[in-house]
Specification:
Residues 1-15 and 641-647 have low confidence and may be disordered. Helix 7 links the parallel strand 5 (148-152) and strand 6 (178-183). This protein is 37% helix and 23% strand. It starts with a helix and ends in a 10-residue tail after the last helix. By secondary structure, the chain is α/β, with parallel strands linked by helices. Helix 6 crosses helix 7 and helix 10 (238-247) crosses helix 11 (268-290). The chain is built from 22 helices and 25 strands.
Length: 647
């Protein structure tokens, strides 16, 4: 078979090949000019220009070409060219004439590749011989212009909807200017085995387009046009798909083609930055599957949450300390040089940062008393920092005081920080930074709280346009895995919730977002002026005892209605005495199909900004009490008037 790459170069085609990251302009919000600038600023080397973006632009093609040159990017693909092959009678000649006009336009843009998608027209004929002849004729016309044509099987194509069928046709056409374009959504949405790509020589792959998507059961066209997302934000096996493409020897761009309603209302800068990160992530993951060397350290799932840092000053810090004490925490240390205190219960560390300047102060000005940072335990902090840099995640360094950090930190999506604490040096770090206070006496609250063990999970409330960005951050950097997504009913609207966790379950995180303006999640965002961590869940061994102790200490706990406990009796067969006991403690209950159990106890929210949960997991229960989420939200909604300590 002819070598398409060599033939193309020999014909004088412009060189837009070479492995790099690209993005289709349709993936971004705004005018064509805004999209090109966002792509260049994010580090993309080239773009696919989507036809509608060019048609709607006030810039002429030559001006677009000049703008791309100024930005340091190029057009690596023009797309899409629709309804071409298999057209009857005069429609065939019209298709050929359209192609010639598009080739003229491509010369003005200085691009040498065009996407021809499989025909969806009701007029299209499925005669294979006619399809092959049409593509061969197009190949002759393209070769005369130094152009490569990529034939792509749309998942909803009228006669060709499988990349295996598209490759069979391209192989029969056997023309050096005709190759195949592979699109992960079109292949994976139809569950086509990625191993089938091995049949395609790498030099016949003209271009590769990538998109992830949540696993949904719906019409393919609607799914594609509204729910695609970036690699690492959905449920498709993008690393396996890309690995098979790299296995062929393909050396061209990996490009994003994303249709997503959320992205259409999200700043193009954010989507472009996430997009570049997602391609670095999926390329690295694919190389690891192939056993190929990579310069990026592998993802390190956190070994656990070491601490949660709160920012509060003055009376807010005093009230927050009182809240911690009512929940069973004891102040066990004060920072040697800063206005920072350490509170502990079991293995759970909470920190109050009351510094009058620096990051915590800045965060406090914007968000009020809030969770400004978390610390995660890792095996090798330096390797995590190098992976973060490769993914475009910025390190944090105090302005004007570089090198003064007790531990390395990364910028999070919503502005908070993620500190990295090496697992084998955590205790030494605490001892070095904090002066220990007197230990609790035997029989004290702090001692009886030893049944409290670790941070079970953290929860964040985020803006809708950052919902997928948070997922990508934790998946790409730390290798967290997605668990089943849930839609939770708030009395004022729907809340979308996505759980992420390390493979061993030692670190868990849930993300929540809502379009409805009056949900608790949306009100939290409005109150705190931005997304961030809202909820700390703590594992304990005896939740009924914990419930009794917190109430005895005067903690402001969430009241659960009696109707809930009547329902527990009906659903799970509790006797009335057991149900009343749970009601007195405000404890919620769930169990899975295997009889594993989950008990939950919630505090009221501090100034409507954050709250705490105690959980007791029985057996191998792996969820988060999703059936109880609506009950909890309804209870929290009943306490909307501000009070001294809680909402």
């Amino acid at each position: 078979m002819p070598n398409a790459h060599n033939d193309r170069i020999a014909s004088g085609a412009r060189n837009t090949s070479g492995a790099h990251n690209a993005i289709a302009t349709v993936s971004l919000r705004g005018t064509l000019e805004e999209k090109l600038k966002a792509a260049a600023d994010a580090g993309f080397a080239s773009v696919e220009i989507f036809e509608n973006d060019l048609i709607g632009s006030a810039l002429r093609p030559a001006q677009v070409r000049a703008m791309m040159a100024d930005l340091g990017i190029r057009c690596s693909l023009y797309q899409p060219f629709r309804d071409f092959e298999g057209m009857p009678g005069p429609l065939r000649q019209r298709a050929m004439d359209r192609a010639e006009r598009k080739f003229d336009l491509m010369a003005e843009l200085d691009t040498d590749r065009i996407l021809v998608c499989s025909n969806c027209s009701p007029h299209a004929l499925g005669e294979r011989e006619r399809i092959v002849d049409d593509l061969r004729d197009l190949g002759e016309r393209a070769a005369a212009r130094g152009i490569l044509v990529g034939y792509e099987a749309l998942a909803w194509g009228r006669h060709v909807n499988d990349h295996r069928a598209a490759w069979s046709i391209v192989k029969e056409v056997d023309h050096p200017a005709i190759g195949i374009i592979l699109d992960s959504f079109h292949s994976l949405s139809r569950r086509i085995p990625s191993e089938s790509i091995r049949e395609i020589p790498g030099d016949k792959i003209v271009y590769v387009q990538l998109a992830d998507a949540p696993l949904l059961d719906m019409d393919l066209l609607y799914w594609s046009r509204h729910f695609r997302n970036l690699p690492g934000q959905g449920g498709l096996d993008l690393p396996g798909y890309v690995a098979e493409i790299l296995r062929t020897g393909y050396q061209g761009p990996l490009s994003l083609e994303i249709f997503n309603d959320r992205f259409r209302s999200t700043a193009s800068r954010l989507v472009a930055q996430d997009g570049h990160r997602s391609l670095e992530y999926v390329r690295d993951a694919a190389r690891r599957l192939l056993g190929e060397p990579t310069d990026i350290p592998p993802p390190q799932p956190p070994l656990g949450a070491e601490f949660v840092e709160f920012t509060a000053a003055g009376q807010d810090a005093v009230r927050l300390g009182a809240t911690f004490a009512s929940l069973g925490f004891s102040e066990i240390g004060r920072h040697r040089t800063k206005k920072v205190t350490r509170w502990r219960q079991g293995n759970v560390n909470l920190v109050i940062n009351a510094e009058p300047k620096g990051f915590a102060k800045s965060y406090r000005i914007v968000h009020g008393p809030s969770i400004c940072a978390i610390g995660v335990r890792v095996k090798d902090a330096e390797a995590v920092m190098r992976r973060a840099a490769a993914l475009g995640i910025r390190a944090y360094s105090p302005e004007g005081r570089p090198g003064r950090m007790a531990m390395p930190a990364l910028r999070g999506v919503g502005g908070s920080l993620v500190y990295l604490v090496e697992d084998d040096g955590a205790e030494a770090l605490w001892a070095r930074e904090f002066e220990a206070r007197a230990q609790p006496e035997p029989g004290s609250d702090a001692e009886t709280a030893a049944r409290v063990r670790d941070i079970d999970h953290l929860a964040a409330v985020v803006h809708n346009d950052e919902f997928l960005s948070w997922q990508l951050y934790w998946r790409a950097l730390f290798g967290l895995e997605g668990r089943d997504a849930n839609d939770v009913i708030d009395p004022s609207g729907l809340v979308h919730s996505q759980a992420l966790q390390s493979p061993d379950g030692k670190f868990r995180l849930t993300l929540n977002a809502s379009d409805a303006r009056e949900t608790l999640s949306s009100r939290f965002l409005a109150q705190g002026m931005g997304g961030g961590f809202q909820h700390v869940a703590i594992t304990c061994d005896d939740i009924m005892a914990t419930a009794a102790e917190t109430r005895a200490r005067g903690a402001a706990m969430l009241e659960i209605p009696a109707n809930y406990y009547d329902d527990l009796v009906a659903r799970f067969g509790f006797d009335d005495a057991a149900a009343r006991h749970m009601q007195q403690g405000g404890v919620l209950y769930d169990e899975d199909g295997a009889g594993n159990t989950y008990r939950q106890l919630y505090s009221r929210a501090f100034d409507k900004l954050f709250f705490f949960e105690f959980v007791e997991r029985g057996g191998t229960y792996a969820g988060y009490g999703a059936p109880n989420a609506g009950i909890r939200l309804a209870a929290q909604n009943r306490f909307r008037a501000p009070e001294a300590v809680a909402e």
